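Entry for the shared binder. Reason: the reviewer on the internal report wants the predicted structure included alongside the sequence.
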Amino acid sequence: MKKLALILIIVGAINWGLIGLFQYDLVASLFGGGSQAGMISRIIYTIVGIAGLASIAFLFKNEQRQTA
């Protein structure tokens, strides 16, 4: 679950970077901006947002590190 959340956060970060630097929305361009395709983009944005919220818990979780 952590890896999936991390992947979604990376996708979101790359998308925001592209928006900030080039005014290019990768998610919208992949899934379109029309009414039906726009709904798919909104679902993806929502999933990425949920992954970000779920990842807040990773900041406060103590991880035990194993040394070899």
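Summary line for the report: The chain is about 80% helix and 0% strand.
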